[in-house]
Write a structure and sequence with these properties.
- The complex is a heterodimer of chains A (about 400) and B (about 325).
- Chain A is α/β, with parallel strands linked by helices and about 400 residues long.
- Chain A has helices at about 5-15, 50-65, 85-100, 110-120, 155-165, 180-195, 200, 215-225, 235-245, 265-270, 295-310, 320-335, 345-350; strands at about 35-40, 75-80, 105, 125-130, 175-180, 200-205, 230, 255, 280-285, 355, 365, 380-385, 390-400.
- Chain A has two domains: about 25-150 and about 290-370, Rossmann fold, CATH 3.40.50.2300; about 155-285, 3-Layer(aba) Sandwich (Rossmann fold).
- Chain A contains 13 helices and 13 strands.
- The radius of gyration of chain A is 23 Å and the shape is globular.
- The N and C termini of chain A lie far apart (about 70 Å).
- Chain B is mainly alpha-helical.
- Chain B has a domain at about 30-255.
- Helix content of chain B is about 75%, strand content about 0%.
- Chain B is built from 15 helices and two strands.
- Chain B has helices at about 1-5, 25-40, 45-70, 80-95, 100-120, 125-145, 150-155, 175-200, 200-210, 215-220, 225-250, 260-270, 280-295, 300-315, 320-335; strands spanning about 160, 250.
- The chains are: A alpha/beta (about 400), B mainly alpha (about 325).
- At the A-B interface, helix 1, helix 2, strand 2, helix 3 and helix 4 of A face helix 2, helix 3, helix 13 and helix 14 of B.
Chain lengths: ~400, ~325
């Protein structure tokens, strides 16, 4: 008899049926395809980074058109979390439990990745090449399934400190930092290089994101007798620092600036381009607007790809350069997998990259990982502000071994 | 009354009293509870997690609906209470290692006190001014959570990681099933309490204040106390939802409670049905599932799609889903 109860029961059975999946030996991989998951802020306050995800979708589509990888096409699922950690958790669970992806790739944002890191490690899902500059993704003991990609803030600080010591053994360094994860990574990096000498050499002053200005902090550092300065500040505060340092007549021997705040439009020009002359920063990506890369084969490869696959996209957006590079890096991992896309092997290959050249990284910077090295990019090149652009100079400097 | 309706054409007579259309409330309850329990056996754990989130949002939206829908005080800052509840739970679990169930009453009480403290001065503000004041609260809370002085407790920008509880007494449920059961159970309790409250003398007074404050005062109602108490109860319910969300998501951070959260709750309230007890259930389902739907339609502009769906909803269902349910019998009879 067809009554409400039997209707409900059959409805429930119907709903449950798709969840009974045929047993697979390798999660997310069939003979035809490999499923890869990613999470990007396509909406919300960080939606400018959505460009990274859009390039990746076009990238894997291109890979499939060219025949895929090891005879399989890539099914790339890139979901939106609006840069909200609860949504990141929801989308990650969807990718892992419902879509059953083989692994996660380039999930963006420090808070969101913090929220899912434990979950993906419990589930032993590879969590590859995170799009965040925090240093904590390199923790193979506690989180063997998570690995970062770009040089961390901490690595950058190590590079700054090494350069400073090479040029002046007796330099005294003042650090102006934002009081959060981002700022504290710089303190950690400087400490890595200086070790026991840290307290004798360094003077630190912090500010809160909520502060109106950092004038008093700059004056305080100037008064403490340091002769070099490291500014680990977000763009607005970095611009204020550059102006204030100049206006009180302080000419530090070396002024290092985090690569978070090197935008010409939002930092250097508002501060006054002439006031920042001589400031140093570090770079690892080829800057798409830098004329010296015009004839560079790597950037020509990237431009040709952009014209073919994303003809309408803005080629001055550095996010596309970044995204193309990290996608190429993943392709190297998949190639090394040699047809075995089990989670164990994907993680094994991701942590055995041997000096892989990526076309959009500054020539000479390569990607290298090992079972104990979860910092894929460890080298950067310094650049100096000449009043108009950032001029790269000198050789590549590698982060410290810690 | 009956004589008045007997003159009406037969098609307008109430369908509820027609033989065969009479619905026993106990049957409705049984169906409702069966529907709530059904996902436990049929849904995979990711779906259960989403439904748990929807139930949590439903509770939070119910809290907002009490103060805004029933009492007429527009709040665009309920995300702040949600955040406070979540942090209370996270701190109790992580820093004080207290059992998970103890965090729920604690979060409710603390949010109730905070709600009272905000509701009292807010008495002087009406309508749009109250809306803006509460919105400033929603904007301020994520930054306050990053404040250095309380960083040892809140974890600063890092946030706090917590762990979901296992099912006690060896119940054959996994963590997601257990949490779903707990959330739905609490939601059911809160909804019944809210329904009883609104059907009571105090509930009628709350609505009277919304509809005509002067008349209500002339009738001898203590407007100041009632409004403040409503704000406190509302904050309490939303804070309870926040605590549940911390346990379900297993993570709190300032970025989890951006100002948009308050707007999300407001949207859920309007879509579900303003001044309705059952409406927030649909509001909760809407805010969890519709953004995913929007994203599936377009990745390049999920916000636009979401906005279009929202406008379509408000256009087709001006009184929210609850309004449709209310009109449904009349619509069917008109056929």
């Amino acid at each position: 008899m067809l009554n409400r109860r039997s209707l409900l029961a059959s409805g429930a059975a119907l709903l449950a049926a798709p969840s009974i999946v045929k047993a697979q030996t390798v999660v997310g991989v069939t003979s035809e395809e490999i499923k890869i998951g990613s999470i990007m802020p396509y909406s919300g306050p960080a939606s400018a980074y959505g460009a990274i995800g859009r390039l990746q979708q076009a990238f894997f589509k291109g890979v499939n058109e060219a025949g895929g990888i090891s005879g399989r096409r890539i099914n790339f699922l890139s979901l939106d979390d609006g840069y909200q950690p609860p949504k990141t958790v929801e989308q990650t669970r969807r990718l892992v439990e419902q879509d059953r992806v083989a692994f996660l790739f380039n999930t963006l944002g420090t808070p969101g990745n913090t929220a899912i890191q434990r979950y993906v490690n419990q589930r032993k899902v590879p969590h590859l090449f995170l799009a965040t500059g925090a240093d904590k993704w390199a923790d193979p003991q506690n989180f063997p399934w998570t690995i970062g990609y770009q040089p961390s803030y901490r690595t950058e600080a190590q590079i700054f400190t090494k350069y400073m010591l090479e040029n002046d053994r007796n330099a005294k360094l003042g650090i102006l930092y934002q009081n959060d994860d981002f700022g504290k990574d710089y303190i950690a990096g400087v400490r890595d290089v200086l070790g026991a000498r840290f307290d004798a050499v360094v003077k630190t002053v912090s500010y809160e994101v909520t502060d109106a200005t950092i004038d008093s902090q700059v004056v305080q550092l100037h008064g403490s007798g340091v002769d070099c300065l490291l500014t680990a500040a977000t763009p607005k505060f970095a611009a204020q620092t550059i102006r204030k340092v100049h206006d009180i007549g302080w000419r530090p021997k070396m002024h290092f600036l985090t690569d978070v705040s090197i935008s010409v439009g939002s930092v250097m020009n508002p501060a006054g381009p002439e006031k920042g002359v001589g400031i140093l920063t570090a770079a690892y990506l080829k800057e798409p607007t830098d004329p010296t890369w015009q004839a560079d084969p790597g950037m020509q490869e990237w431009r040709a790809w952009m014209v073919k696959h994303m003809p309408d996209a803005d080629q001055t957006d550095g996010n596309f350069v970044y995204s193309y590079g990290v996608s190429k890096c993943l392709m190297q991992v998949l190639t090394q997998c040699n047809g075995d896309f089990s989670r164990e092997n994907v993680m094994k290959q991701a942590t055995s990259l041997n000096n892989v050249a990526i076309p959009t990284l500054i020539n000479g910077i390569t990607v290298g990982t090992s079972a104990s090295n979860f910092h894929p990019i460890r080298k950067m090149q310094l650049a100096k502000w000449d009043g108009k652009t950032w001029e790269r100079f000198g050789g590549l400097i590698e982060g410290a071994n810690v | 009354m009956a004589s008045q309706f007997s003159e009406a054409p037969p098609s307008l007579r109430s369908g509820v009293v027609r033989p065969g259309f009479r619905v026993d409330p106990r049957l409705l309850w049984a169906i409702g509870i069966a529907l709530l329990l059904l996902p436990l056996f049929t849904a995979e754990s990711y779906r259960l997690f989403q439904l748990t989130l929807a139930a949590i949002y439903a509770i939070a939206i119910l809290g907002l609906n009490l103060v805004t829908g029933y009492n007429g005080q527009i709040s665009l800052g309920h995300g702040a209470f949600y955040a406070v509840g979540a942090y209370v739970a996270a701190i109790m679990l992580d820093k004080l290692s207290l059992p998970w169930w103890s965090t729920l009453p604690a979060a409710a009480v603390i949010c109730g006190i905070v709600g009272w403290g905000i509701g009292r001065p807010a008495l002087r503000l009406g309508g749009l001014y109250l809306a803006l004041t509460t919105f400033s609260l929603a904007v301020a809370v994520p930054q306050i959570l990053k404040y250095k002085g309380i960083e040892d407790w809140t974890g600063g920008v890092q946030g706090v990681l917590v762990t979901k509880p296992d099912a006690p007494f060896g119940l054959p449920l996994d963590v997601d099933q257990f949490l779903y059961l707990v959330t739905v159970g609490i939601a059911l309790g809160v909804f019944v309490l809210a329904r009883n409250l609104m059907a009571s003398r105090i509930g009628r007074a709350m609505m009277a204040i919304r509809d005509h404050a002067l008349a209500a005062e002339a009738m001898g109602m203590d407007i100041a106390n009632l409004k403040t108490a409503t704000f406190a109860v509302s904050a309490m319910i939303t804070g309870l939802a926040g605590a549940l969300s911390a346990i379900a998501v297993e993570f709190v951070s300032p970025d989890s409670f951006q100002a948009t959260l308050s707007i999300t709750l407001f949207v859920g309230m309007v879509v579900g049905g303003v001044a309705s007890i059952i409406g927030p259930i649909f509001g909760g389902l809407f805010v969890v599932f519709v953004p995913n739907l929007a994203e599936e339609i377009s990745k390049s502009a999920p916000g636009v799609i979401y906005g279009c769906i929202l406008i379509a909803f408000l256009f087709v269902l001006p009184g929210g889903v609850a309004g449709l349910l209310r009109r449904l019998p009349a619509l069917l009879r008109r056929r």
